[in-house]
Fold each of these.
Amino acid sequence: MGGEERRFIEEAFSANWISPAGPHLRLFEEQLSNYLGIKACAALASGTAAIHLALLVLGVKPGEEVICSTFTFAGSCNPIVYVGAVPVLVDSEPYTWNMDPDLLEEAIVDRIRKTGKKPGAIIIVHLYGMPARLDRLISIAQAYEIPVIEDAAEALGSEWFGRKAGTFGDIGIFSFNGNKIITTSGGGALVSNNQNYVEKARFLATQARENALHYEHREVGYNYRLSNICAAIGLGQLKVLEERIAQRRKVFNWYKARLNNHFSFLNEPENVRSNRWITTPVVPGNNPEITVNRIIHALDKHNIESRPLWKPMHLQPVYRQVPAYTNGLSEKLFKGGFCLPSGSSLAVNQVERIAGICIEVVNN
Ligand SMILES: *Cc1c(COP(=O)(O)O)cnc(C)c1O
């Protein structure tokens, strides 16, 4: 926590706004919109709920196909199934580890050829805080007139040529789950420059309750709004967001300075800022998974938690049957990469200790 969260929660208690409505919620939405430079925002119960509503707002229908990055967390992909649509998974490119524009175009053309219909939406993920190749991805989506949802759950504050990730697509989504760069304990947001999209999302998130004194419902809605208490936490967290990003970028640079001779690191393309949510080195050479395993175990012996990278969706048992356009990169990264402890409160001597253990493993 940053320090002011308690004060905002106290305010919410004093005013008795303990519900999914209230002044802190409105202020959180306003401040987040201002920070991102976007017209409208609906604070929601989770990032997953935000993607679910984004698909509904964009009119994705059962049986339709939706393209999604394969190298991501399941929360990006599961909402496609919630709306009865079929995920079509697309692999990564090496400069950002995110959706490969050439493969995206190949997938669109092939899906049109095979099904006679273009996909209903494209979900572009900005993994580990690194913005995807937005210039090319967005122009391909526009050429085929397919709406884009940016999954910026891990990329709050990341920038592509000075503009915030999550503001390029038709809809952007964020997550404030406990593991993200700032948190409301659990929460998310849907943002757009199209006010109607955000209003529709807010309507669906409030059980699709019509504007009438009695409870009138013409369609099926959801209970997806963020609580005012959680928004109060969010107000405190927004105050320290830039500090957190600076700290995570520092942590990345500390690791890189110490480990650059042993591992490869994902550099920022020119004019791109990653929030460096997590530092993710990759082991070079053949059979890197052996080294990754040894590092994770060696760190664990010191009571230090580390993990493999996200397991691509096309390798997950639940998504093995869906169409996938792959090039081997996400699979290679899954085998050879790992997540180092990257919390905003890490000190340089802790990073040194962790780096020392990693180097010991590769030297043995
Ligand atoms: C965390 C995350 C989500 C889901 O957000 P929740 O708030 O946990 O539902 C979606 N996509 C990615 C890439 C994430 O990291």
Amino acid sequence: MNALDADSDRDTGLRSPRLVARVGMLLGICITVCFVTGLLSHWIQHPPAWFYWPSRPVWLYQTTQGLHVITGVVAIPLLLVKLQLVYPKLFVRPVIGTPARAVERASIAVLVSSTIFQLLTGLLNTAQWYPWKFFFTTTHYAMSFVVVASILVHIAVKLPLIQRALGSPLESTDPIDPAGTIDTASETPVEEPESRSEPEAEVRAVSRRMLLGGTVAVGAFAALAFAGQTVPFLRWFAFLAPRSGEGPQGIPINRTASAAGVLESARNPDYRLTISNGTVTRELTLDQLLAMPQHNRDLPIACVEGWSATGTWSGVQVRELVALVDGDRDRDVRFISLEAGLYGVSTLPANIADDPLSLVALRLHGEQLTIDHGYPCRLIAPNRPGVLQTKWLTRIEIR
Ligand SMILES: Nc1nc2c(c(=O)[nH]1)N[C@H]1C(S)=C(S)[C@@H](COP(=O)(O)O)O[C@H]1N2
Ligand SMILES: [Mo]
């Protein structure tokens, strides 16, 4: 402490813990919501034995996943502002110092790099741009725990300072008890030529309040710009969102029939939908499916990438197809596509399969499904990630 002169004891300027802690708190809220909604989405797609996800309300997943993408996007400007405010600390000497300091700095290195990695890969994923070799979902999932663990360590280390910073007025220049800062006495602060020569000018030009307000405004702007791809009345504003565009029949297309390699098999005149409970098997032509009772359902496609769009689908109830082969209503139902591979299979939990809202859809907005939306038929079930709404169905298995 004794190495500090009176001036640096005072909390002047923008790089104040009072401002950093407030930006950090907003960032923490975004990352928490993003983490929880992300975990939920992961569990829905890879359900642990104890996990239960209801079929209603039908808009729940659309909402949680919209929040996931929006909070992730908003976290980006917040993180940039926070890094901009604290980065001189990253260069203070000594680089390593005491063991405690070494641990703290290592945790910061992990925190900063994992958070940048996570937000960037997430953002690129919303644009369906994968300029990397690893498999996105597993990496994004694993890395989320690294981010959260390093944030918890960071908060634990800084807690006394955070409490003092948040508990005192934003613009105050009173010394903020330096006991909570990292071992300040042993550090030689980095030279900051500009702010050194004219500290007052920097303080006056932009107040902390203005910077905090500006940060919130940029975050809100980013949120609105992305929210349009999932909130209909904001769609006109969604110029930043990769998926605001319309697709055939008013719903965007994720993967086309041509990309999935099903152009021929989907149009095969000998097409049959096979339904099997293991012992009883039925094969239905498209005409036979159309001859069954048809139901209309307004349901969203809610893509994990953050866009969603509601359509009026019509087709046959999944529960009726299960009944057709005397399938057990308590069993999960597997949907298999003409498309081989990762996205060609999905499992519908029994509770959702049995909901009268779940359809094998044949029509969208009163017209036959276009081939890109899954002709001859596709799964459309309530409260599900889009990636599990399997298109170009060939086989249904009651497990
Ligand atoms: N067989 C198959 N079904 C699929 C996909 C796919 O790649 N293959 N993509 C899924 C994804 S990620 C989404 S968001 C929805 C999109 O449906 P749409 O193209 O009709 O909008 O279809 C799902 N069904
Ligand atoms: Mo998707």
